[in-house]
Amino acid sequence: RIAARAAARRMAWLLGERPGERVGFTVRGERVVGRETVVEVVTTGVLLQRLQRDQELAGVDVVIIDECHERHLDADTVAAFLLDVREAIRPDLRLVAASATTDAEGWARLLGDAPVVEAEGVSYPVEVLWAPPARPVKPPHGMRVDTALLTHVAATVRRALAEREGDVLCFLP
């Protein structure tokens, strides 16, 4: 849900707009679209529910399956439904599979010998620094996070910024 909101906000910002104008989003419990919306970013779960209600996907011209390498039940079910819908009732429905790390040729075959478009990215050197806390961290309770974890993360980031050049990317439990 966070990614769907963030993607929509970024696209809207690039257009000089707010979400809900030409670019909107729908996640469980929140829908921000308007009459002018032409791009709607949705979660896999929302798309699956929409397919169950309206197999024709009325008003939809293109579905982009982003991060198609992420294999899970909802994503695989959505892909199967979309392929069936396109074959049986919506041959005009365009499907795009996007990923930085997937088997492009396999997806191209699955989508009916679709062309593969490759974009060259820039790779940067990455140094991995493993910095576990000194003591076990209590699991989060609702929105509450163990303050010891926050203190440890802040200290680790400060140390990394002081000792090294460049940016810091943290992966947390």
TrEMBL record:
Domain Helicase ATP-binding: 1-120
GO molecular function: helicase activity; hydrolase activity
Key words, A-Z: ATP-binding, Helicase, Hydrolase, Nucleotide-binding
PROSITE patterns from the UniProt entry: HELICASE_ATP_BIND_1
InterPro entries reported in the protein's UniProt record: Helicase_ATP-bd (IPR014001), P-loop_NTPase (IPR027417)
Entry-linked PANTHER family: ATP-DEPENDENT RNA HELICASE HRPB
Descriptive protein name: ATP-dependent helicase HrpB
Lineage, top ranks: Bacteria, Bacillati, Actinomycetota, Actinomycetes, Kitasatosporales
